[in-house]
TrEMBL record:
It comes from Papaver somniferum. This is EF-hand domain-containing protein. Keywords: ATP-binding, Calcium, Nucleotide-binding, Repeat. CDD domains: EFh (cd00051). GO terms for molecular function: ATP binding; ATP-dependent protein folding chaperone; calcium ion binding; cysteine-type peptidase activity. InterPro entries: ATPase_NBD, EF-hand-dom_pair, EF_Hand_1_Ca_BS, EF_hand_dom, Hsp_70_fam, Papain-like_cys_pep_sf, Peptidase_C1A_C. Residues 458-493, 530-565, 567-594 form the EF-hand domain. Belongs to the heat shock protein 70 family.
Length: 594
């Protein structure tokens, strides 16, 4: 045990932290890749089990750096397996991943939509192939003792030979019905050498394997229940890990899901292939179209056309986001109702306050009841089912005020004419815009935009894993009295007063329950994920040549409108390694609100 209570390993009288030992393994892999490619490999994507917490993931990152890698990303193994199956998949659907390796059994349900992969549920335990190997080894030791009256379990050399032969026989039985285990002179007694010869049948192997088969069934059923998905709705089944080559495993998986596992993915290579694909995406070698609307709670896209209805569309989008945060329900409210009924000539534009006031006084129905036409028409009356807001207010116009507000909920922002016409605004296609050249106005309103923050896929996956882990009865609801344990699991311990404040803000009591949408928003705000995610995304967009750095000219373009002397001073301050460019970490540190 290390002084900080971390578990260390002692070898030859020296203590090693786990991250250092892991770095030696990664260093060996690095050398192998260098030799094969005949060039130095400097960047890596590393996979970890989905249940790894933040501290464990950081340790892996440290190990990668010790090995000489620039660790671009840590991704979970099921996510990698999903990538290996469908990096360019266009169909929406659910995929089951059965990962049965040497140390663990894990079952995952993934949702694949427009190229985005989300882990919907996970279930498993620490019973893996090594446990089964020990059972098989025990059986062979017992069989030998029956015939020779010698217990091999105390003979380390003999046991090592037998373990190797057992592993070989297990693999052989994946393609044959019987395997011969023959080890001459495995031991000796007073009468001379003793030879081991045992015929192992596939049926016997499967009988030894019966508890593991039941375990696979149990975890598959738990996972389907947690994901609220029927087995018949699983589009594909992926097998990962060497133990999934056992015919009985494939048979039971086929029985559970009603379809044969995919043969397009090698179980031994699926996770590594997924990591390679992710590396290709990050290095721009692979193109993956991502619908940014899938990053969070976003309703259907409304095309404004040639009319000036952004004042209504922007406000109703902000209210939709707030409604989702509070209630966990994503509704598409009617912008056409606001345009027609909130005041005269709504298609010719209006101040955003008019839309907010209409939400307060009259309420707005669903878009399905009052669909958008993008044309001038009379107000056709108020529908019976409407949503109201209690109030609305202004925030400051500086970046810090905007960032603080948008972390809590979506908001609307009016862009001035000069900004809308600027090359910076015209060149970006969507998503959050961040920089000191915001030009907001309260008077003329050429365009109204909606501002919101999103979580990255990795962050959403981590929150989903935490939710599933603490949802003990699998009803997709989390009791608020476990939120403190969840925060600790995610790496942040809250004082009791702050925890109670978080529960109160959620509008729930101490022993009530919340669904995942509300849980996600509560926890994300406490972990301050959102600003960093936004800045990391901005870095990728500003890095126009995709070399992993922002040059002085790229930074100058971003800060268009700011005095060049100030820009140079900021750039030099952020460029801590003085290489004349900014990496992502330096950029985020500079742009993050102090």
């Amino acid at each position: 045990m290390a002084p900080n209570e971390d578990a260390w390993v002692y070898l030859n009288g020296k203590a090693y932290p786990p991250s250092e030992l892991c770095s030696y393994l990664l260093q060996n892999l690095k050398e192998t890749a260098n030799d094969y490619l005949e060039k130095d490999v400097t960047k890596a994507v590393i996979t970890v089990p989905a249940y790894f917490n933040d501290a464990q993931r950081r340790a892996i990152v440290n190990a990668g750096r010790l090995a000489g890698f620039d660790v671009l990303k840590i991704i979970s193994e099921p996510y990698a397996a999903g990538l290996s199956y469908g990096v360019n998949i266009k169909e929406d659907g659910h995929v089951a991943v059965v990962h049965f390796g040497g140390g663990t059994l894990m079952v995952y349900i993934l949702e694949m939509s427009h190229g985005v992969i989300e882990i919907k549920a996970a279930s498993g335990d620490a019973l893996g192939g090594e446990n089964f190997d020990n059972i098989l080894l025990g059986y062979l030791v017992t069989e030998f003792e029956k015939t020779e009256s010698i217990n091999l379990s105390t003979n380390k050399l003999a046991l090592g030979r037998l373990r190797e032969a057992a592993e070989k026989a297990k693999i052989e039985l994946s393609t044959t019905m019987e395997a011969e285990i023959h080890l001459p002179s495995i031991t000796a007694d007073a009468s001379g050498d003793k030879h081991l010869h045992i015929t192992l049948s596939r049926s016997k192997l499967e009988s030894l394997f019966s508890d593991f088969i039941e375990n696979i069934k149990k975890n598959c059923q738990i996972c389907l229940k947690q994901a609220d998905v029927a087995a018949k709705d699983i589009a594909e089944v992926l097998l990962v890990g060497s133990m999934t080559k056992v015919p009985k495993v494939q048979e039971v998986v086929t029985e559970i899901f009603g379809k044969s596992p995919s043969q397009g993915v090698n179980p031994d290579e699926a996770v590594a292939l997924g990591a390679a694909i992710e590396g290709g995406i990050l290095s721009k070698d692979l193109k993956v179209d991502v619908d940014w609307g899938l990053r969070g709670a976003v309703t259907d896209i409304t095309t404004q056309g040639s009319v000036c209805t952004c004042w209504a569309i922007g406000v109703k989008a902000a209210v939709e986001g707030i409604f989702f945060i509070i209630n966990g329900i994503l509704n598409n409210f009617s912008s056409q109702q606001i345009v027609d009924c909130a005041g005269p000539d709504g298609v010719e534009g209006a101040p955003q306050e008019r839309a907010y006031n209409y939400f307060m006084t009259d309420g707005v129905c669903l878009d399905a009841e009052y669909p958008y036409t993008g044309a001038r028409q009379d107000c056709v009356g108020i529908k019976s089912s409407r949503v109201f807001i209690d109030s609305f207010g202004r925030v400051g116009y500086g970046n810090k005020d905007l960032i603080a507000a948008v972390k809590e909920q979506p908001l609307t922002a009016g862009l001035s004419g000069s900004f809308v016409q600027s090359p910076v605004y015209q060149s970006y296609k969507g998503g959050p815009y961040f920089g000191d050249n915001y030009d907001f106005t309260t008077d003329a309103l050429p365009h109204l935009v909606d501002k919101a923050v999103y979580l990255s896929d990795t962050q959403i996956s981590k929150l989903k894993e935490a939710f599933i882990r603490f949802d003990e009865d699998g009803d997709d609801l989390l009791e608020t009295n476990v939120l403190g344990r969840v925060m600790t699991y995610l790496g942040k311990t809250l004082p009791e007063a702050e925890l109670q404040e978080m529960i109160t803000e959620a509008g729930t009591g101490q022993n009530e329950t919340i669904g995942f949408p509300r849980f996600r928003n509560m926890i994300a705000r406490k972990l301050k994920y959102t600003v960093i995610a936004e800045l990391e995304d901005l870095f990728k967009r500003v890095d126009t040549d995709h070399d992993g750095f922002i040059s002085a000219s790229e930074f100058l373009m971003l800060m268009n409108g700011v005095d060049e002397t100030v820009i140079q001073a900021l750039f030099q301050e952020a460029d801590t390694d003085e290489d004349g460019q900014l990496n992502c970490e330096e950029f985020v540190r500079l742009m993050q609100p102090k």
